[in-house]
From TrEMBL:
Superkingdom field: Eukaryota
Alphabetical UniProt keywords: Disulfide bond, Glycoprotein, Membrane, Receptor, Transmembrane, Transmembrane helix
SUPFAM superfamilies, A to Z: Immunoglobulin
Membrane topology reported for the UniProt record: Single-pass membrane protein
GO molecular function annotation: signaling receptor activity
Source organism (scientific name): Phaethon lepturus (White-tailed tropicbird)
Keyword Transmembrane: yes
Family: Belongs to the CD200R family.
InterPro entries named among the record's database cross-references: CD200R, CD80_C2-set, Ig-like_dom, Ig-like_dom_sf, Ig-like_fold, Ig_V-set
The UniProt record lists the keyword Glycoprotein: yes
Any single GO BP term: regulation of neuroinflammatory response
Protein name (record): Cell surface glycoprotein CD200 receptor 1-A
Subcellular location: Membrane
GO CC annotations on file: external side of plasma membrane
Length: 176
């Protein structure tokens, strides 16, 4: 999320037409088109964040600027050339790194929260714990995971929470 993404299309030297057909999971479909005989591009219902990366006659790649969850969906590039028709399809999934916080509850137990990640983060503790994480889903598809550290012994002074996520792992330490 937040980065730019470039989706490539099968480049053909004799392309007569290139079309990107975009079907997001949220909202209506859109399309970008290019006709070589008229050297003309066209767009239908696409947001300004989606456009050709370069000139479509040289490279028909699609660039998505500032990728958001709303960009998730299917992206199909169709190239019509003298050699035939060529297709390439992407299923775009957007990763959202969670915000990691670690604090002490009113009983002095460490609580680790990986907020608004997509997909849900996996929380673990450096010292062994018998905690059971709780997940809360949000309307935008993100998930908050909450885990309370419960120690097997009472002589624990410093604990570390680790949030594992495809967008990157994070860790924080606390003494309660």
């Amino acid at each position: 999320v937040g980065n730019n993404s470039v989706l490539s299309c099968p480049p053909q030297s004799n392309a007569t037409m290139v079309t990107w057909k975009i079907n997001p999971k949220v909202g209506g479909p859109c399309a970008l088109g290019y006709r070589a005989d008229q050297n003309k591009t066209d767009r239908t219902n696409c947001s300004d964040s989606m456009n050709w990366k370069f000139r479509p006659d040289r490279d028909p790649a699609l660039e998505i600027r500032r990728v958001g969850i709303a960009h998730e969906g299917n992206y199909t590039c169709e190239v019509v050339a003298t050699e035939g028709n060529f297709h390439k399809t992407y299923d775009l999934t957007v990763l959202v790194p969670p915000r990691l916080t670690l604090y002490c509850d009113d009983r002095g137990n460490p609580v680790c929260e990986a907020a608004a990640g997509k997909p849900a983060a996996q929380i673990s503790w450096v010292r062994e714990s018998n905690s059971t994480p709780k997940e809360e889903g949000h309307d935008n598809g993100t998930v908050t995971v909450l885990s309370k550290f419960t120690a097997y012994s009472t002589n624990v002074t410093n604990t570390t929470c680790i949030a594992s996520h495809p967008a990157g792992n994070q860790s924080k330490s606390i003494a309660c």
